[in-house]
Design goal:
heterodimer; A: 112 residues; mainly beta; five-stranded antiparallel sheet; globular; B: 115 residues; seven-stranded mixed sheet
């Protein structure tokens, strides 16, 4: 059974600092996704990572994938208050079934 | 263009009642997903449609839950004999081609409260 674990689950940090959110998964995956969710809102897709070594960047966020370690990271550079949200990673195995399994999310609070 | 829409945005019902939740995907998106999200948790997969057929319904918790997508566009999630434990936000997402992955676009969700 595919399991997806994120850490930390809660993170409070100062503006201007760098930090990394980790996403580990238990079995071979076809794709890994990162999403952002603001309180009371739906999910916004950030990145999809398809292959080992994939790196994608958008603004202050950079996501990477290491399929051998079954690990993805979401790195935040020089955090700003607007990045406060909950970040989810999700993994799918659509070559074997069509489920997409989400982690529990990392609630990020950036202090001004 | 228009994104994924869901109606109603909020639904309050009594235990034992029947409810229908509607999802309008982005036009042309063949893949459609339903998820359920409880407070403080990540979305939980329920069912995936590719076109009109349910390609994977293994996430539906029991036989009180059923979903259809008769014309390959709009989908309806149906819950019979609702229970308090069914209270959650029900999210719908669509993507261009599910089998090859790509970004999913989520709707705003329907908040279901079962009293």
């Amino acid at each position: 059974e595919l399991k997806v674990e994120q850490n930390p689950l809660f993170l409070s940090m100062q503006e201007g600092k760098n930090y990394t959110i980790y996403c580990n998964y238990s079995t071979t995956s076809d794709r890994l996704y990162w999403y952002r969710q603001d309180p009371g809102k739906s999910l916004e897709s950030l990145f999809v990572l398809l292959s080992n070594g994939a790196v994608k960047q958008e603004g202050r966020l950079m996501a990477s994938l290491d399929t051998k370690a079954r690990l993805s990271t979401l790195h935040i550079t020089a955090a700003v208050h607007d990045l406060s949200a909950t970040y989810f990673c999700a993994v799918d195995m659509t070559s074997r079934d069509d489920k997409i399994i989400f982690g529990k999310g990392t609630r990020l609070h950036i202090l001004p | 263009g228009a994104g994924v829409s869901q109606t109603p945005s909020n639904k309050v019902t009594e235990k034992g009642k029947y409810v229908e939740l509607r999802c309008d995907p982005i036009s042309g998106h063949t893949a459609l997903y339903w998820y359920r999200q409880s407070l403080g948790q990540g979305p939980e997969f329920l069912i995936y449609f590719q076109g009109t057929g349910a390609a994977d319904d293994s996430g539906l918790p029991n036989d009180r839950f059923f979903a259809v997508r008769p014309e390959g566009s709009v989908s309806t999630l149906k819950i019979q004999r609702t229970e308090r434990g069914d209270s959650a936000v029900y999210l719908c997402a669509s993507s261009l081609v599910g089998a090859s992955g790509g970004l999913q676009y989520f709707g705003p969700g329907t908040r279901l409260t079962v009293l």
